[in-house]
Amino acid sequence: MDEQPAFTERDFTVPPSAKRRAEERGARNTRVNRDTTRDRFEEWCVKEGRIARPTTTTANVVAYFDHLMESGKKDGSQYSPDSLLAYLSRIVTWYPAGERPDGSLVRQMIEDYRLEEYIPAGGERDRAAGLTLFYLVQVLDKIDESTRIGRRDAALLAVAYGKLSRGIEVADLLVKNLRVTDDGVWAYTAKSKTRRSGEGKWRFIRDRADLQIVRRVRAWLGDLRELGADNPVLPLFRALSTTGNLKGRGNATVRGLHLSGRAINDIVKKRAAVAGVTYINGLKVTSHSLRAGPNTDMKRAKVPLADRREAGDWGEKSLLPDSRYNRPDDTETDPLDAVPLFGQFKEDPTSP
Description:
Blueprint: H1 16-23, H2 28-48, H3 58-71, H4 81-92, H5 104-118, H6 133-141, H7 148-162, H8 167-172, E1 178-180, E2 184-189, E3 201-206, H9 213-226, H10 261-274, E4 279-280, E5 283-284, H11 289-300, H12 305-312
Antiparallel strand pairs: 1-2, 2-3, 4-5
Helix pairs in contact: 3-5, 4-5, 7-9, 7-11
């Protein structure tokens, strides 16, 4: 009989770096949101004389969500039903299988809250406007591309629209993720929200007179060369000072040299505001508008759903490009336009 190996203590020792990776698995934003939700629940339980850990009761969870619906946020606004559902999932999954509180009653409470309180009070799903090409051109025209910050922002908007990017995907781009030709730009996505693993994906964005993506990307890459920041493995879009120099990022330990998704969102909102398109069709312009906008344009141009799924890196069976991400603009139509200014109707000379 073969002898069994004699394991030593080393065979059962996990390196500190591996332990850290295991404990911090998952996207950082997801971990932060999860931990914050759980901490708030535990703090509330302590304040109310209830027990949150190591196990809890269904009654405690029901009472907590009743508190959230009754009290609302600190700023006086209501919690959205979708946020509450996300909180519920984070809290329930905090406990081992078999010891988890029953969330079914809370889900029914949230649905009743949606129908009876949230919607009647004016609440709605927080959706971004579709920054279609008609409006994007207006935003780009208001950018001073004689400055380095202007050239960065113009390239950022053109790339994000062309590849239907989420804000964080723009922030994650590296210099090597763009390849420029005279005809267009190849843009690479290592992973996306719906494609967490597997091979990366290249997308070709053809140059066109309105988007001018080749000129804008080349101009920004030229700036990166001047700044000594064009190493292929460095972030494509960088934080700049008001004078156009690289900002120090020594304290940015989480994202490093990368911009955050929030920073991308701020850039988009500020540029849109300067162009007078803070809202489109009653919806706010945000970084996600650069995902909804091109999909809306392509749908209007009768591009097949399958091709739009491919362009936007949606799942092969996703209906989102035809539902939530199709946001046509009808703000140009108002029946009141037929009413003369100040209500001064011209008298009909033929009337008695």
